[in-house]
Amino acid sequence: MNKVRVFLxxxxxxxxxxxxxxxxxxxxxxxxxxxxxxxNLVGGERGVADVEExxxxxxxxPLLTQIHEFPTYMQVKDYNSFPVTxxxxxxxxxxxxxxxxxxxxxxxHIFRTYRRSLPELExxxxxxxxxxxxxxxxxQYISDSLISNRMLFENAVESHIREVLGKDGFIFEQLTSxxxxxxSLMDAIEAKNxxxxxxxQAENKLxxxxxxxKQNVILAESEKKVNDLKTSSLTPLIIQQMFIEKWDxxxxxxxxxxxxxxxxTK
Length: 266
Known about the structure:
By secondary structure, the protein is of the alpha+beta class. 54% of the residues lie in helices and 22% in strands. It contains nine helices and eleven strands. A three-stranded antiparallel β-sheet has the order 3-2-5, covered by helices on one side. α4 (125-138) runs antiparallel to α6 (150-167). The termini are far apart.
């Protein structure tokens, strides 16, 4: 029984010592592609120390200090869709995918300013900047103009995001907007396009009919000129020649023999 008590006492002592060491000494590995920052929890230097920890092992005191890691490689965030309203009140839906990086040299500034981890910033500050950028840009367009000037609209959104986030150390990489117009507007545009196509087809048919009518007039005039020319050129001598060429050499049996045949038979 005494051996059991001794064993329990030793076990408890080791556990207490282990917990004490864990609270007194911490070891953190900062991998490549990350920036580690030391945050002082007490004392006159409370806040973010002006020292960036590079990749490797970092030893610190958990009771007095915290270590935070920020990835510096490209991050891709697929946000949920949200509505934006144009100048004329049309509601578009935006489903953005945002790619960015964190500036290594500004990681302490980011944490000092917002006191949040990167995932928390993505769901808070970054998302708010992106949504505001789309809403500000959409309010400069009417619905038809936004569709026809989509590239300019997206450029305005990207420019605003670059400007705002760049000041805080976020490097813009890429933005995919995935814009969906309201169904009523799409139906109206489709109807307008269909009416335009029908009008173009009707105009083409009218032009074809006019061209055919002009061609018919020209042909009729040409035929009349030819006929008039033929009629004016049929002199009595030519008519006699035509009769002779067509005559089979026989005189009419009944009736009076035409004068031309009488002259031929003499």
